[in-house]
Amino acid sequence: MSITTEITGAGVRLRAFRPEDLEAVAAGYDDPLCFRFLPPLPSPFTLAHAERFLSEGVTSVFAEGGAVYAIADPGSDEVLGGIGFDKVIPSRGQAEIGYWVASWARHRGVATAAVRALSAHALGTGLARLELLTHWDNPVSQRVALAAGYRREGVRRAAMPGRDGGREDLVAFARLAGDSGEPTPRLLPDLPGGELTDGVVTLRPAGPADTDFIVRLRSLPEVWQTSVPAEPPDPAQVAERCLRAPAQWLAGTRAELVITDVATGAPAGEIALFYEEPPTGQAMIGYSMMPAFRGRGFMTRAAQMVALWAFAETDIARLIAGTLPSNAGSQRVLEKAGFRREAYLRSRLPGPGKTRVDDVQFVLLAEDLLTEGPRLDG
Question: What is the largest CA-CA distance in the chain?
């Protein structure tokens, strides 16, 4: 690859670090987000650490075939962050890109512009493949990867040493020299305005802050006994799932939402869409509700809002939902939401105590909902 002293991007300029950048580097790295997602970084990060980075760290990266640049404002030359690539494997034409953005420059598209600029240059002058690795709980970086034309490839287990002595999984993205560089399309886009509401209930994306509520909800016997697997929830697993929920949404595998009562703001239940078969346009929904909010039509409203969003904003054409034969309440919810009973699947699911249970399957098609329209009468 050809190493250049300056790369211009949309609203950013990538240039060499200079001695006068010392204080900006120290302040930029001495930040909670940098400490979280860059475990090898000393904490606190002092001027002495910054001086060593500028005098030794940058030189060592270039010596090993990589590159490091300051992300600067093209007008003021203010340091906005840093970016580069290392872990170069010449025989494969491969390297790993990484970056940081200072707290004073966030939420301005700096990272996306810088990653696009460096990626286009590196892949246009010799490299064949760039990898971008992020933590599960860093959806911001995952959005940057997708916006810069990277594709999610999977998860690298225990790829990064953590500050607590353990090891952490990393989500892997890659961009190839032959890729267009255009933003990677998403199977499940963001909700319009960040939530769905009909004035009675609101659906918002689930996240780490919802862990305690979801543990309480899934600990109800009538909930866990109809779940897969049919066993009481492990709080640690629920916490991990909530932590990873934003990343799963970005990956297009599932959209998990908390149902809240508009009148009180209290969480009432949860509903999730699982995009099981993108090639066939088929997805599944699952849901549960706290006892105090049952019988008020909340779940019917939630199911219809999820269906309307899925049919309008994604390529999903067919939604399925299953219930136990004895769960008359759930079947009424689905029927009121426009779903039609389609199949009785014997011994389809694992039940409590290594038993097998039957599954009654309901289906909603896009044309059914659009023809009949929403039915939010409770």
Answer: 72
Q: Which two tokens stand for residue 286?
A: 């699952």
Do residues 299 and 305 touch, judged by C-beta distance below 8 A? no
Q: Please report, in angstroms and rounded to a whole number, the separation of the first and last CA atoms in the chain.
A: 63
Tell me which residue has tokens 């799932």.
241
| Residues 177, 123 contacting (CB under 8 angstroms) | yes
Contact of 171 with 134, CB cutoff 8 Å = yes
Percent of the chain surpassing pLDDT 70? 97
Alpha helices in the chain (DSSP H): 22-29, 32-37, 47-52, 58-63, 110-124, 139-147, 211-218, 221-224, 235-251, 298-313, 328-336, 366-372
Residue 162 vs residues 30, 168, 313: alpha-carbon distances, Å: 17, 6, 38
* DSSP output for 108-134: SSHHHHHHHHHHHHHHHTT-SEEEEEE
Catalogue all structural domains in the chain, each as residue range(s) with its CATH number.
6-176 (3.40.630.30), 192-372 (3.40.630.30)
Q: Residue 184 gets which letter from DSSP?
A: P
**Pair 306, 320: CB distance under 8 Å:** no
Q: Is the peptide bond before 352 cis (omega within 30 degrees of 0)?
A: no
237-240 contacts: CB < 8 A, separation 24 or more? 238/211, 238/214, 239/208, 239/211
Per-residue pLDDT tens digits for 223-232: 988 888 888 9
DSSP 296: S
pLDDT digits (tens, 9 = 90+) for 36-63: 999 889 989 999 999 999 999 999 999 9
* Angstrom distance (rounded) from CA 186 to CA 163: 32
CB neighbours of residue 148 within 10 Å: 26
Reported as type and span, the H/E element at residue 135 is strand 129-135
Residues of the chain with pLDDT under 70: 1-3, 370-378
Nearest-CA neighbor of 8 among 81, 58, 65, 69?
Answer: 69
Contact 158, 168 (CB under 8 A): yes
Give the integer Cα–Cα distance in Å for 10 and 121: 13
pLDDT at 373: 57
